[in-house]
């Protein structure tokens, strides 16, 4: 397992200047390091109580800061080990100095997610809960925060735990009938087990299916605005964003770099990118911008092809439309506030590729609600669940699906009156899969990989 005999340290607040900056230490030397910092070997902090202390540089005896310090005594701490928090003033230079001093006192810098990893290893929380904290921190919308909070409260385990217990009961029953060969499974019990397995697959599949909506909440949708210069991409970007982020002018070729911002559409985080207008340009900087626009377009989940509806459809628009043909896209026919506006080439609101066309005015804020709804439409899954618990994590989804498949194969074997030994293989696999979701049966290698996606200090 990971070495836990050492004491780790990290800045737990974001880097940069602020009112306060919190340094966290966890491990057997945490209290000793605190005593050195407050220059008092006899300092006995009451657990969970903040005290105002002067922090001293042990080498020079100079005062470093006035800080609120707190001691959390093992095992009643976030990590389950002795934890110290130093609430210092939020100067990056000061915080760096204090961290360096703790390093000289034999702490070591924490790896990403190492505090959470220790919490899971020490049984302070389940893996799904640690993952929920990361998702909560990373959430881009209120709806995503809400889902992460539900997961943090242990809702996933509350669904999975009973499933695991049911599975275990069945496994025990089948193993015992294996042991006493003459004690063949009575027909009645055989049917009961079949029923339970059917129920289990239905419940777990239902949970797995929520991933289609859940992943949108967590990862969001990448949307890029593309089009020839001057059609109003930057104006539309600003209107969707609700403030003047991109420069808008009547001069074609104004936007040269890509600009990206997160917006919230009905709770779904959307990463919206404004790009340089696509055209052949002799200007070196603009050409680089056009390359970037194409790369951004290739990476997007959805393109909004912007067309100026107040002008006839030109070759420049055709180039963009044909480039977008094979990608998921919708068309925003912009400048519908102008008298010259006409719905060029639109048939029943669809273009030649069958993609939706929506008339908008970035300037007068017309049609934006319809446009927003059209952005989400291709990603909706019909039954529009947003109420219940959603699976938001690809790892959970994968394990759920594998468990469902494993139970399914055992179910078919049992129906075909195969030997208990064969039936048990799938059930054991399913049990292991479910245990991996909550962390009980997760290997160290996988744990390491999961926690490396956490931020430092978490
Ligand atoms: N009338 C009208 N003008 C618009 C609209 N959207 C953009 N424009 C104008 O079109 C010009 C180009 O806009 P801009 O957003 O820079 O286009 P981009 O090059 O595609 O990013 C500017 O003069 C805008 O004010 C609109 O909906 N209606
Ligand atoms: Mg622009």
What attributes does this structure have?
binds magnesium ion; binds guanosine-5'-diphosphate; single chain; six-stranded mixed beta sheet; 44% helix; Four Helix Bundle (Hemerythrin (Met), subunit A); 458 residues; Rossmann fold
Report what the structure shows.
- The chain has 458 residues and is of the alpha/beta class.
- It has three domains: 7-125, Gyrase A, domain 2 (2-Layer Sandwich), CATH 3.30.1360; 132-210 and 389-438, tRNA modification GTPase MnmE domain 2 (Four Helix Bundle (Hemerythrin (Met), subunit A)), CATH 1.20.120; 219-379, P-loop containing nucleotide triphosphate hydrolases (Rossmann fold, 3-Layer(aba) Sandwich), CATH 3.40.50.300.
- It is built from 15 helices and twelve strands.
- The protein has helices at 30-37, 92-104, 114-121, 127-138, 142-152, 155-179, 187-209, 211-219, 233-241, 284-299, 315-324, 368-376, 394-415, 420-438, 444-451; strands at residues 7-11, 18-26, 50-56, 63-72, 83-90, 107-109, 221-226, 259-265, 268-274, 302-308, 329-334, 357-359.
- The strands form two sheets. A six-stranded mixed sheet has the order 3-4-5-2-1-6, with helices on one face.
- A hairpin with a 6-residue loop joins strand 3 and strand 4.
- Helix 6 (155-179) runs antiparallel to helix 7.
- The longest helix has 25 residues, at 155-179.
- The protein is flat and about 80 Å long.
- The model has no long low-confidence stretch (mean pLDDT 91).
- Bound molecules: guanosine-5'-diphosphate (GDP) and magnesium ion.
- Guanosine-5'-diphosphate is lined by residues 227, 229-235, 248-250, 254-255, 277, 334-335, 337-338, 361-363.
């Amino acid at each position: 397992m990971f070495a836990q005999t050492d004491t780790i340290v990290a800045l737990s607040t974001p880097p940069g200047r602020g009112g306060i900056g919190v340094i966290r230490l966890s491990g057997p030397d945490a209290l000793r390091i605190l005593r050195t910092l407050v220059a008092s070997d006899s300092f006995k902090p009451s657990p969970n109580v903040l005290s105002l202390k002067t922090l001293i540089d042990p080498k020079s005896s100079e005062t470093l800061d006035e800080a609120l310090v707190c001691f959390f005594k093992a095992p009643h701490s976030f990590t389950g080990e002795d934890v110290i928090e130093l609430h210092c003033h939020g100067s990056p230079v000061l915080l760096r100095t204090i961290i360096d001093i703790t390093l000289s006192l034999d702490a070591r810098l924490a790896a990403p997610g190492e505090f959470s990893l220790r919490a899971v290893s020490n049984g302070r929380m389940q893996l799904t809960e640690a993952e929920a904290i990361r998702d909560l921190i990373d959430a881009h919308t209120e709806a995503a925060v809400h889902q992460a909070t539900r997961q943090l409260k242990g809702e996933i385990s509350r669904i999975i735990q009973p499933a695991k217990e049911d599975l275990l009961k069945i496994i025990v029953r089948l193993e015992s009938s294996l042991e006493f060969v003459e004690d063949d499974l009575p027909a009645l019990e055989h049917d009961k087990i079949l029923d339970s397995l059917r129920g289990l697959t239905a419940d777990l599949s239902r949970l797995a299916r929520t991933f289609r909506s859940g992943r949108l909440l967590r990862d969001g949708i990448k949307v890029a605005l593309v089009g020839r210069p001057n059609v109003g991409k930057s104006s539309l970007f600003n209107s969707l964003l609700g403030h003047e982020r991109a420069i808008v002018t009547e001069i074609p070729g104004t936007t040269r770099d890509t600009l990206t911002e997160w917006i919230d559409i009905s709770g779904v985080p959307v990463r919206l990118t404004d790009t340089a207008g696509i055209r052949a340009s002799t200007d070196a900087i603009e050409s680089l911008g056009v390359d970037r626009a194409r790369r951004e377009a290739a990476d997007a989940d959805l393109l909004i092809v912007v067309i100026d509806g107040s002008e006839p459809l030109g070759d420049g628009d055709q180039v963009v439309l044909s480039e977008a043909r094979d990608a998921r896209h919708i068309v925003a026919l912009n400048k519908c506030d102008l008298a010259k506006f006409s719905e060029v080439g639109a048939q029943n609101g669809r273009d030649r590729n069958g993609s939706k066309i929506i008339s908008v005015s970035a300037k007068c804020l017309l049609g934006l609600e319809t446009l927003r709804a059209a952005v989400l439409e291709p990603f909706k899954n019909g039954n529009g669940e947003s109420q219940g618990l959603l699976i938001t994590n690809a790892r959970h989804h994968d394990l759920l699906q594998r468990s469902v498949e494993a139970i399914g194969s055992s179910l078919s074997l049992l129906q075909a009156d195969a030997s208990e030994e064969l039936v048990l293989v799938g059930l054991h696999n399913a049990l292991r899969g479910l245990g991996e979701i909550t962390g009980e049966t997760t290997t160290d290698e996988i744990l390491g990989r999961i926690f490396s996606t956490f931020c430092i200090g978490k």
